Amino acid sequence: MSVSLLPVRIESEWLLIHAALIQEILGAQPWLSIPHTRRELPGVVAWRGRAIPLVDLGAIFGLSPLTSKLSRPRTLIGEVDRGLLAIPVDEAREVQEFSSDQIRTAHAVSRAHSISEAEVRGLIMPILDLQSLLVSLTQAHSADSGA
Predict the structure, then answer these.
(1) Which site in 17, 27, 101, 130 is 20 to 30 Å from 115, CA atoms measured?
(2) Range of the domain at 105
């Protein structure tokens, strides 16, 4: 069984995202800041007539957070549990195929929302679990809003 993963970069950090979750890869997208939101969810992006939440992986991983003056050259549109999200990244490379024995438990690179890793061109990259990330952000949002 093979797994298709998309290598993406945010600043100098590379990670892998399950390609099946990515609906589209766009160029830089304007986004609307929403006041009084968490820095991990700073606003929304318009996509196909809908406003979808913007997830800032830079803020989540302790890198430069997005600001009205800082965007990223690519925007991934992902779908997790029938919910859409926009993920700005600096670079997205071609999808890579991995056999199950090429994916291992994370030990070389430790990142939040990643329990496994794989090697691409000599670089070990964490595999981001978008489901875990979304659950974490939603739970934190519910706790922050008192729901």
Answers:
(1) 27
(2) 2-145
Q: How many domains does the chain have?
A: 1
Distance between CA atoms of residues 104 and 60, nearest Å: 23
Express each pLDDT in 108-141 by its tens digit. Answer: 667 777 889 999 999 999 999 888 888 887 776 5
Place of tokens 């934190």: 140
DSSP string of 96-116, one letter each residue: EEEEGGG-EES-SS--TT--E
What does the DSSP 8-state code read for residue 60?
Answer: H
- Residues in the chain, pLDDT under 70: 108-109, 140-147
How far apart are the C-alpha atoms of 31 and 53, rounded to whole Å?
A: 9
Torsion, Cα 80 83 86 91, to 10 degrees, reads: 20
What global pTM score does this model have? 0.88
